[in-house]
Amino acid sequence: MDAAAIPILKRLVPSLRKRRAEMTDPLTYRLIKRNGAMFLVDYSAWSDRQTLIHGLVERPQTEFLLRAFVDHGVEIFVDIGAHTGAYAIMVARHTQCHRIIAFEPDARNFAHLQANLLVNRLIGKVETHQVAISDKDGTAPFMSVEPPYNVWSRISQEPNSQGNALVRTARLDSLLSLDSASVGLKIDVEGHEFQVIDGMPNLLRANRCILQVECVPERLPAFAAKMKALGYDHIHSIAHDRYFIRA
Question: Which superfamily does CATH assign the domain made up of 57-246 to?
Fold first, then answer.
């Protein structure tokens, strides 16, 4: 007997078939509501599939950062490697930050970021820049990764690599001049975190900052030493995300 002929399954089977077709269609986008916000999900992208199934991909990290921002009265949020905007959206909805700035160099991700801000009515509330934050102002070769793994687009690290795109780079100290502010930063740049920090010593020294930085274990001792020299203690880790606060 065809399972679809059983009464209780008459609606379930077509629904499952439709969902399967959507999930395997590389051109399918849908709007979904997760964690109190709207997201445009691309079924061909790994991170969007995770959002569809589980909600926020980095929910423990996001919740820890939001609590820290509230506890420390963070006023300004800087999202470096914003991807499609989940952190910026959550900070806009759940904190008192009066300025939110998102940097995302990948053209596809940047367009997706703008779409997510639009459906959450955050255009104008979140500043966006298609720039890679680094240790110099100029341009750099970039590896723009297609779905499903476009979350791992990055500045090319290999010597003499031309990448497959060219992106604008900037030191954060060239773009932001702040003094005595309470600043939160999320840095997720696929191995480029040392250069990001090298481009923002003035901001770190002149302000009270809380940072979430993705850093793999083998690079953490050297990175923690760099942050310590700038006056920041490593206070917590969740997976590969490390948390630093001014000592």
Answer: Vaccinia Virus protein VP39 (3.40.50.150)
